[in-house]
Amino acid sequence: MHQEPREGAQVALFREGLRQINVLYAHQSTHVWCLTRVPKDEPRAYHMRGWTTFELRVASLIKHAELLLNLGLLPLRRPALTAAQRKLYPDEDHHLEYFGEEVLRPCVTTRDAPLTPEAFRKTLGLEGEPDAKTFTNGADRGFVAEKYEKTFHEVMGSTEELWFVELDWGDAELALLGRALAHCPQLQYLSLDGNQRITAEGVGAHLLPALAQMPQLRVLSMLRCAPGLHAELLPALQQLPAGLKLEIS
Question: Which of 59, 142, 40 is nearest to 108 (CA)?
Fold first, then answer.
């Protein structure tokens, strides 16, 4: 997008870019690579900036994990290939396999749970919270909040599948997710596989009440979660809506 100074057609293109920016980040099929490492002389960290917070949050709503990469997790210097790696990747024909091992695996980000628009407004400091996100243009704060709210309702209100797999989530993230799921009436499949810090108490307090807001939900998958979770959940499972399949191990 064209930055200042802008002239003529650049102004129109910039405005159209702002109008569509949420689509680029939130779409389930786009790849988002976050450059989270900032120069040493830059006082504003990536996660303290308003626009990057918006971009990361909307990209985290419904995207599969491998489509959202945190490139700040890459080492500053690329280590030399081992002998075994040189055998695996002898030439550029194997670049996709190399990308998967050296870039994709370390950079798949552990994302936060989706925020409702009300919670996002607090993150931006629109409710008077301290340590709010920074904006170069203060007028952007309200614009970003409105853009997030519109994106959230469009995306969460129409999505049929959500995959939050192996993100090291616990009950705190489950509480945020439970509030967001109240806005997912079309959801049919929800996967929380591999989140081993989720407890039976968290499921009972935050997830089960949200199921009533998802009349189309057909599968809830909680494979490879905490050992013993299935047994602890047995009493609560009697409350599951008819027609809902629970996959748990």
Answer: 59
